C-alpha cells in the first residue's frame, strides 16, 4: 500500500483521526498537507511529521471557499501536485431536537458537509485537468460515520451531515468515474480520540459503548488510518462509491452484548 511520492491533503489533521491518517501517509511515503484551523496543533503536527517525512501545515476553514482555494493553491506551491484528498474536518454540537439552535445546525452542516463538497470540488477540478492532459487519476476519501445510518437523538446535525456525506461520496464517485478518479468513505464507530478519552475514567460510559460493540473494545485512530491508506493506494483501484465501516461489528448488531464488570 505504498504512497511513495504521492501528495495528500488531509483536512482536520491537527489531531485525532486526521493526524493518524497524516502519520500513516507520511510513513507510506506521501507528502502531506495538514489542513486545520488550529494553528498551534497544526504547526506541532507539521514539526512531528517532518521528523520522518515531508509535511506542511496550511490554515484552512473548509467552510470558506476562499480558504479552500488557498489550500489547493498552497499545496500546489509546496509540492507541485495533488493526488489524494481526505475530507476529515468535522465538528459536533450536541442538543436535543427541540432545543437545537438554527445557527448550530448551520455551523455543523457547513463544516462537515459543505466543507467536504468545497474541498472535493476544488481538488477534483485539478485532478480532471491532469487526467485530460494524460496524467494519473487521484482519490478522494470522505470521513463518514456509523451515524450516517444509525441516529443519535441529541446529535441531529452531526447525524444529518454524515448521512449527507455518504450521498456526497456516491454522487462524487459517479460524477468522477469517467476520469478514473475514485471517491470512497470510511465510517468509523467508537474510536479512542480526544473526544472519547473521558470514557477511560467513566466505567458506565465505557460499558455503554462496549455493550454495542461485539469486538469488545474501542477502536484506535491508526486502524482508521490503515483503511485510508488502502483506499488511497493502487490496491483499491477498482473501488469507488463505497463506505467502509470500521465499527467493531456495531452496524450488524440488533441487541446489546454483556460487558464484564471491571475490578
TrEMBL record:
Q: Name one GO molecular function term.
A: quinone binding
Question: What Enzyme Commission number(s) apply to this enzyme?
Answer: 1.1.1.47
Gene3D superfamilies referenced in this protein's UniProt entry, alphabetically:
NAD(P)-binding Rossmann-like Domain (3.40.50.720)
**Which controlled-vocabulary keywords does the entry list?**
Oxidoreductase
Which GO biological process categories is it annotated with?
fatty acid biosynthetic process
> According to the lineage, what is the superkingdom?
Bacteria
Identify the InterPro entries for this entry.
Answer: KR_dom (IPR057326), NAD(P)-bd_dom_sf (IPR036291), Sc_DH/Rdtase_CS (IPR020904), SDR_fam (IPR002347)
Where in this chain does the record put each Ketoreductase domain?
6-189
Q: Which family does it belong to?
A: Belongs to the short-chain dehydrogenases/reductases (SDR) family.
The protein here is known as: Glucose 1-dehydrogenase
Q: Which organism is it from?
A: Stappia sediminis
Source taxonomy? Bacteria, Pseudomonadati, Pseudomonadota, Alphaproteobacteria, Hyphomicrobiales
